[in-house]
Amino acid sequence: QVQLAESGGGLVQSGGSLRVSCAASGRSFSNYYMGWFRSAPGKGRLFVASISRGGSVTTYADSVKGRFTISRDNAKATVYLQMGSLKPEDTAVYYCAARARSDGEWGSWGQGTQVTVSS
User: What is the pLDDT of residue 26?
Assistant: First the structure.
C-alpha cells in the first residue's frame, strides 16, 4: 500500500484557479496509477481525473474536461490537480487515490482536502 496526503485546498472565487497536491510515501510511487475524486454534500464520491504510471495517459470526467489538468512528478512522488475556471459546483472535498492496475480497485486513499468556490 501507499500512503497519500493531500494539500493545497482552500477558498477561491468563481472563475479562479487552484492547485491541489497529493504526496505519496511507502512503496514505489511510479508503480501506481493515480486518480482524483471529489465528494460534495449529499453526493457520493465522484471520479474527477486519473493518470497513468508514466503520466502519458490522462482521463477526465466530462464536468471538468478542459478546466482541470492532472499531472504527476514521479521523482517527487506527487500528483497534482490544477483546477481552472472554477465554479461553485466544484466545491467539494477532493481526494487522491492510487491503484496498482489500470483496471483495479482504488486501494489507497488520502484524507481529503476541502475546496470551496464562492460565487
Answer: 76
Q: Residue 3: CB partners within 8 Å, gap ≥ 6?
A: 24, 25, 26, 108
What's the confidence (pLDDT) of residue 86? Answer: 98
**What's the Cα-to-Cα distance from 10 to each of 22, 78, 81, 116, rounded to whole Å?**
15, 19, 13, 6
Q: Report the pLDDT value the prediction gives residue 27, as an integer from 0 to 100.
A: 73
**For the chain, how many helices (H) and strands (E)?**
0, 11
d(CA 88, CA 77): 30
Encoded amino acid at 69, one letter: T
C-alpha cell belonging to residue 12: 477561491
The helix, strand and coil proportions of the chain, stated in percent and rounded to the nearest 5, come to: 5, 55, 40
Beta bridge partners of 67: none
Write out pLDDT tens, residues 24-59. 997 799 999 999 999 998 889 999 999 999 999 999
Q: Determine the Cα–Cα distance for residues 88 and 66; give it in Å rounded to an integer.
A: 17
